Amino acid sequence: MPDTTLPPSSQRPFLRRMLLKAGKTFLRWNGDFQTRHSLISTTPRIGNHEFNWVTALEARWPAIREELDRLLEHPEDIPAFHQISPDQQRISKGDNWKTFGLFVYGQRVDENCAICPQTAQAVSEIPGMRTAMFSILKPHYHIVPHKGPTRAVVRAHLGLIVPKDRKKLWIRVDDQILHWDEGKVILFDDSYEHEVRNDTDELRAVLFLDIDRPMDKVGTAVNKLLFSLIKASPYVKQPLKNLANWHRRDKKA
């Protein structure tokens, strides 16, 4: 397995940490603006009827699951979330939460898309798709409560491997408990506090997506600027750099 161990956040450059903190504070402050200009619900859970691509994605889930199953034959080749995105170290520990990125804020990860071409094609057809990855959670792991930095996107999960014991497997978004089903999409606003528990003895895996929130003209213009700033920030550049390093080290192994 490639050694992509990253320094803890306390060892990262002070200026970078301050910039990230300031950026997240601004994004959350900007949430009220996004609420006013949103064309869809701003509730914790968002209805599937608000997006016309949901049914088409669900219809393709068997092919997506097949590509995931092939990946899982070699789990050592799939990095933990914090190995790619060091800012996730508070919620991603050990190798309990693995991710396999296909798109990162609109940037295509060519090596991974080549491994999962049908999944890459399916997500690339979703209007406003920003981020797409497989999210793989080991048994008996708890993703602690946290909030996403911006209401500019909507989070989608397509259930792929879902243990049957619902009492022991769930995601809480604000005050709502949601459950996954294989082949079905759930949509939510991750700027609300949320957490995940997998207290089963089985793996849980979903296709994880961030989609542009539909906005009015003013909101769309502001979010376009916002996305360009995010893409130019360490929040996106560092994960892309780490993905490239992961692939280079994997080839040398």
From TrEMBL:
Entry keyword Oxidoreductase: yes
Q: Which GO terms describe its molecular function?
A: dioxygenase activity
User: Per its UniProt entry, which superkingdom is the organism in?
Assistant: Bacteria
Q: Which residues form the Aspartyl/asparaginy/proline hydroxylase domain?
A: 58-214
**Alphabetic keyword roster:** Dioxygenase, Oxidoreductase
Q: Could you say which protein family the record assigns here?
A: Belongs to the aspartyl/asparaginyl beta-hydroxylase family.
What is the recorded name of this protein? Aspartyl/asparaginyl beta-hydroxylase
Origin species: Serratia marcescens subsp. marcescens Db11
Q: What phylogenetic lineage does the species belong to?
A: Bacteria, Pseudomonadati, Pseudomonadota, Gammaproteobacteria, Enterobacterales
